[in-house]
Design a protein that fits this description.
alpha/beta; 6-stranded parallel beta sheet; globular; Undecaprenyl pyrophosphate synthetase
Length: about 260
C-alpha cells in the first residue's frame, strides 16, 4: 500500500517538476553533442525479480527512440549512443547472441523512422558479418535524411579507437610515400583526430551515464577530454525525461574551462 501511494504521488508530481525544469532551460544554450552510456540493463532486469538479461536489453532498446526524441526537442544535433563495448563481445554466447539481435532490431527501427542520420562507430570487423552489413546499410540509406546525427557505438572501445587511429595515420603516411621520420615528426593531436571514428564531428559537450556508475569505461576516451559529465542513478530502462532535463540543467550551470 505504501509503495502504491509513493508511486501515485510521483506520477502526479513529476509532470509539474518537468515543467519547472523546462521553464529554466534555454534550449539555445544546450549541448550540441551529447554522448550517452546506456548502462544498467542487466541490473534493471535483476531488480525485476524473474526477468532475464535479455528482457533488460530489450527494454533498454525500447528506450532509445524516446530519448532521441527528447534530444531533438532540446536542439541536440549529435547524439552518440554506446550500445556495445568491445569487452561485451566476450560475454557468453547465450547472452551475446540475443543482445546482438536486439541491437540489430533497434537499428532497423531507427532506419525505419527516417528521423536521424545513423553512423556506426567501433571496430565493426569484430562484429558478426550480418550485423556489420546491417550497420553499413543503415549508414548508407540514412545519409542526409536529417541534420541530426546519431552515432551508434557498437563493438566500441576507447583504447581500440586510438590504436586504430594511430595505425591509420601511419598507413596513410606510408601510402603517401613519407619516411618513418616524416610520419613521426608530423604526428599531432589534430592529425590523430582526423583518423578517429568520429572524424569530422565536434567532440561531445556532455556525456551522460546511467545506472549510478561514475566512470567512463573508455567511452570517447580521446574526444571527452573537455566534456562535462553527468551521472544518473536510474538504470537505462528507467531513464526518464526528468533525468534528461536534470542533466541539461547541470550542464547549463557549469562554467566550461576546456582544461584551463
Amino acid at each position: 500500500m505504501i509503495a502504491f501511494v509513493k508511486r501515485t504521488i510521483k506520477a502526479l508530481l513529476f509532470p509539474l517538476y518537468e515543467r519547472r525544469l523546462l521553464s529554466h532551460l534555454n534550449f539555445e544554450e544546450t549541448p550540441h553533442h551529447v554522448g550517452i552510456i546506456l548502462d544498467g540493463n542487466r541490473r534493471w532486469a535483476k531488480s525485476t525479480l524473474a526477468a532475464s538479461p535479455e528482457h533488460g536489453h530489450r527494454k533498454g532498446a525500447e528506450k532509445i527512440v524516446e530519448v532521441l526524441q527528447w534530444c531533438e526537442e532540446a536542439n541536440v544535433n549529435i547524439i552518440t549512443l554506446w550500445l556495445l563495448s568491445t569487452d561485451n563481445l566476450n560475454r557468453p554466447a547465450e547472452e551475446l547472441d540475443p543482445l546482438l539481435k536486439i541491437i540489430g532490431a533497434a537499428i532497423d527501427r531507427l532506419v525505419e523512422l527516417k528521423m536521424w542520420e545513423i553512423r556506426p562507430l567501433g571496430a565493426l570487423d569484430l562484429l558478426p558479418p550480418w550485423l556489420h552489413e546491417k550497420l553499413k546499410n543503415a549508414e548508407k540509406v540514412s545519409k542526409g535524411v536529417t541534420p541530426i546525427v546519431v552515432n551508434v557505438a557498437i563493438g566500441y572501445g576507447g583504447r581500440r579507437e586510438i590504436v586504430d587511429a594511430v595505425r591509420n595515420y601511419i598507413r596513410t603516411g606510408i601510402n603517401e610515400g613519407k619516411s618513418a621520420d616524416e610520419i613521426a615528426d608530423q604526428i599531432s593531436s589534430d592529425e590523430i583526430g582526423k583518423h578517429l571514428y568520429t572524424a569530422g564531428l565536434p567532440d561531445p559537450d556532455l556525456v551522460i551515464r546511467t545506472s549510478g556508475e561514475q566512470r567512463l569505461s573508455g567511452f570517447l576516451l580521446w574526444q571527452s577530454a573537455h566534456s562535462e559529465f553527468y551521472f544518473c542513478e536510474a538504470y537505462w530502462p528507467d531513464f526518464r525525461r526528468v533525468d534528461f532535463l536534470r542533466a541539461l540543467r547541470a550542464y547549463s550551470q557549469r562554467h566550461r574551462r576546456y582544461g584551463a
